[in-house]
């Protein structure tokens, strides 16, 4: 591989701040960022059971791993975590917003708590993290990359997931809005829209006989003919975090095995 191509995709010496780094999608993408050269700053719950697994992955890649604790669904807590990050002297380059939750139910059954929980984590936390990250870049007069995780549900509504659909539609739209204001200042803002990915949260739908019909529906709807795996998002996140995407902003990369095209 030529030195030019290698350098375009290298994250050597960069620092990535990640929300949701310990989750099913987050572990794969954050580990990939570390393997590409980035040091990792993880914003996570104090009792996160996957924290040490993430640390092990990052340190195996030869990168540093810092943890700051926050309930990301609480705006005050999240802004406080970013204040601590800056107080520690972290100089940011990349933000990956992949914290997310789901609440299922028919529209008429969704409670205020369901709606608040999903919007606070999936939409508001991503908005606040991008805002705090961008403000620090502007203060330092530095370029940077913001990568939000939206969904194919940003484009299609599906059923029984109305709060999630609202949140992911919002992520897609604020990505565009932030890019309009910041791309001229060297801050690229993009998002990745995964399709149906096999993670601990979705494992039951692809393996439990109870959901055989749902599993068959997903595979039949996806032209590639399978569920996605977290590793299927690695190429997109490295591209959007690296110099290779310097002229890409305000848009999304759909990683769905062709589902939206069908």
UniProtKB/TrEMBL annotation:
Iron in keyword set: no
Coiled coil: none
Transmembrane segments: none
Pfam families xref list: adh_short_C2
Descriptive protein name: 2-deoxy-D-gluconate 3-dehydrogenase
Similarity remark: Belongs to the short-chain dehydrogenases/reductases (SDR) family.
GO molecular function: oxidoreductase activity, acting on the CH-OH group of donors, NAD or NADP as acceptor
Superkingdom of source: Eukaryota
Key words of the record: NADP, Oxidoreductase
Presence of keyword Cell division: no
Native source species: Trichodelitschia bisporula
